[in-house]
Design brief:
It is a single chain. By secondary structure, the chain is an alpha/beta fold. It contains 8 helices and 7 strands. Helix content is 41%, strand content 14%. Helix 4 runs parallel beside helix 5. The longest helix has 26 residues. 42% of the residues are buried.
Length: 261
């Protein structure tokens, strides 16, 4: 039997990248998937492809979440995946000294406020259900400092901690709702495009980004989706408040380069 059979799963930011991979993996495992994205067209296209349903959702909008609650008052799995780096419209300073307050707030509105609203919706939608799961997509950047992307790192660190607050709250309330976070790093998705650029030096930039990763490669969105399937399934019934890193060994340290004669 598919691992997510009969489960209704909602994925935010599912129009592309990690969110799209998670939605596809959930559908393969038998879930009824609600594909949400601020880009309604990309959400609808993916929903048609996987046999799911689509809805436009700006995760920073409380009104959009209220509309989602009207359309889907109950769900079994909530994946808060939608996020931005702040570099989507071009590279500009995001360090602690020169980042603008406007940019800082814009990143937190999507990454942190969106996750807060998603968790709040999910708790209310899951109260009357059975064993349920909230999955928050944080980042390796939520575990370490990132000088050139201070807002992004701050928001993802807050997502990590809020995950634990939600997990403890649900347990305290006697709710069978688990909440865990996934922390990807160097996953090759469209989010990387502003930094990798195009042209002849693209390959060189890609190599530089993964040079300190022990596995010496970018990860795939499907590899993150596999972890999401595990956390969504009943196989992870004893996991809550946990954080799963998928970073090619980046946080483990540096791998020694074998010497050859």
């Amino acid at each position: 039997m598919p691992r997510l059979n009969t489960k209704t799963c909602i994925v935010t930011g599912a129009g592309r990248g990690i969110g799209a991979a998670i939605a596809r993996a959930f559908a393969t495992e038998g879930a009824s998937v609600v594909v949400t994205d601020k880009d309604e067209g990309s959400a609808a296209a993916l929903a048609r492809d996987i046999g799911g349903q689509a809805m436009r959702l700006d995760v920073a909008s409380e009104q959009d979440w209220e509309a989602l609650a009207q359309a889907w008052p109950e769900c079994d799995v909530m994946v808060n995946n939608a996020g931005i780096t702040g570099f989507e419209e071009g590279l500009r300073p995001h360090d602690p000294e020169t980042a603008s307050l406007q940019d800082w707030r814009a990143v937190h509105a999507v990454n942190l406020d969106g996750t807060f609203l998603g968790c709040r919706y999910a708790i209310r939608a899951m109260r009357a259900r059975g064993a349920e799961s909230i999955i928050n997509i944080s980042s390796r950047s939520g575990l370490v400092g990132i000088p050139a992307a201070a807002a992004y790192a701050s928001s993802k660190a807050a997502v990590r901690n809020h995950t634990k607050s939600v997990a403890l709250y649900c347990a305290e309330q006697g709710l069978n709702i688990r909440c865990n976070s996934i922390h990807p790093a160097a996953i090759l998705t469209p989010m990387w495009e502003p930094m990798l650029g195009t042209g002849l030096d693209r390959a060189e930039r890609m190599a530089a980004f993964v040079a300190d990763t022990p596995l010496r490669r970018f990860g795939d969105a499907e590899e993150v989706a596999a972890l999401a399937v595990l956390l969504a399934s009943d196989e992870a019934a004893y996991m809550t408040g946990a954080e799963l890193n998928i970073d090619g060994g980046l946080l483990a340290g540096s791998a020694a380069t074998p010497k050859t004669d």
